[in-house]
Amino acid sequence: METNEEKRENRILLISLGAILATLVVIAVVGFLCVNTPKEFIQGQAEATVVKVSGKLPGRVEAFFVREGDSVKEGDTLVHIHSSVVEAKLQQAQAMTTAAKAQNRKIDGGARYQTIQSARDLWLQAQSAREIAQKTYNRMESLYGQGVISAQKRDEAQAAYKAAQAAEDATWNQYNLAQSGAQQEDKTSAAAMVTAAKGGEKEVEALLEDQYLLAPCDGVVDEIYPQQGELVALGAPIMSVMRSDDKWITFNVREELLNDMPMDAEIDVMIPALGNKRTKAQVYYVSDMGDYAVWRATKATGEWDSRTFKIKARPMTTLPNLRPGMSVIYELK
Fold first, then answer.
1. pTM across the whole model
2. Mean pLDDT of each 10-residue bin along the chain, 333 residues long
3. CATH topology (fold) of 41-47+240-331
4. How far apart are CA 219 and CA 28, in angstroms?
């Protein structure tokens, strides 16, 4: 039989075990009541439109007027590109224009005074020769009618008269041509040459306009590619400018979460890099990312494939310090 001492020890042991079990139950209940369900977040990324600055002028980078990180306004001068080859072509094109204009003035002005006067003198000389030949022929014709000279002499005088007439007509045509100037076709051709020369000059000038590249928009100089003194090719990007007025946030979410981020919804987001700043953003784009972005089920049954969608939201307030690549957190409701 148990002694009183053993009974007392067993009773103390049972009371201790009961107290421990009661404590554990209380702790479990309190823990169940106090522990909150962990919040679920979606992490996105800030993005912005970046405009590449390039020109039509191949040449050497002469000077930069901005540095990476500088804020610029639309129309600000960014860089100077120098091309001695294009400047030489401009001088050549200007010389061609000057020559074409001179030729056009020469044709429009007609023949010189000395040329016209010389043609007139030749015509008057031929006219005098024709008058003498005509008189000689008339006398020979009269003498032939009287039987004084032979028919051969009369024919020789007639041939000389006709030759003098032909010479007079030829010199008259030359004199008339000198007075009339160039033909209309020549004038049209000369004018066309002037237009073509001016076109070539303007083409080179258009290339030289790109020796100073300007900012295409308000923003921040994001990256400069070449170094000062390097050669750049036609159309090669010189730098990129991030637009300050076109920033957005991109989220990649599974389709079962789309109800939390519908089109045109206003969502609260947090930006850790800006001191956990909170702001509102409006969803403006929802699109399927395609078969390459499909979450596959791990079980053969009881699950289904869940597609991934790309969602874009634009901040509803201006955030000058928001940079592409910054994380943006959205807490699911």
1. 0.52
2. 64 72 74 62 90 86 91 91 69 68 60 65 78 82 79 78 78 70 57 67 65 89 91 88 89 85 90 92 86 51 70 90 89 79
3. Elongation Factor Tu (Ef-tu); domain 3 (2.40.30)
4. 58
Residue ranges covered by each domain of the chain: 41-47+240-331, 54-81+210-239, 92-204
The answer to whether residues 289 and 7 touch, using CB atoms and an 8 Å cutoff, is: no
CATH topology classification for 54-81+210-239: OB fold (Dihydrolipoamide Acetyltransferase, E2P) (2.40.50)
